[in-house]
Design a protein that fits this description.
12 helices; seven-stranded mixed beta sheet; elongated; 294 residues; 7 strands; alpha/beta; binds zinc ion
Amino acid sequence: MNKTPLNNGTNQIPIPATGKKNTKLQKEKLSYFGVEDFQVFDEASFHQAFAIDLENARESVIIHSPFISQRGVERYRESIASLREREVQLCAYIQEPDDWIQRNQNILPIESSSRLEQLECSLADLQLLGAHVNLRRRAHEKLAVIDDSILWEGSLNILSHRNTSERMTRWVSPNQVTSAVVKHKLDECSHCWSSGGCKLLTDEQLHAKLLEISSELARKRKYLGLSQREIGASIGTDQSLISRFEHGSCAINSKTVIHIASRLGYELVLVPTLLRHSVDEMVARQLRARRTNR
Ligand SMILES: [Zn+2]
């Protein structure tokens, strides 16, 4: 049986799945993937490649594995512990069994109670390793997202796989990540929302964000050869307000900001924090393409 990845897209890079582990070599090979690149793995090659992705994760990892087992957690124990040491967030989505709420009611058959008890142990184990554990009814997708840029998808339960034959595709693609995060609601981790996800911005951070918006709009205004007075007049306000805005003043209402942006050919949109890097990359790519075509 061929143990190398099954089939590749562009920039095919065979990664040996068996034999002596050569982490350095594999890291180099994985890092050569280009944007929009994909590679297909089988059950033999997947785990090693996925462990390398975990080792290289910088900010966040999401694992959507409907099933979880002690053995499955054990397989990634070191990698997950290392994520916590490096302050890389891990959000896990696991399927909630239909009889989950009855687990403490002494009404279930012994096999069901035992199955749920094992599940509880595995979930507790994962939590102790620092993961955010979310239960989802009837979720059956097998997915993982690394740092907003890599998407794994296919048939393999990452946290419970044992010996079945499977197929997993690894995409290096902000587009694929964005589409998976939106479609499968991977940005709804309840732990992120109740802790870090809802942290208030400091005044400095708030000011920096506003300055980012106003600087870009000022740059575009100058590029179009428009004065502050002209922009002000076109949206029914005066030059001094535009000037204050361009210098990062917070004393400007959202309606005016939307008007200025719209007048300069921009639209203000909300982007989930998790997708910020992907969106930045997509915009940068579009701008590069536009410049090249000029
Ligand atoms: Zn989370």
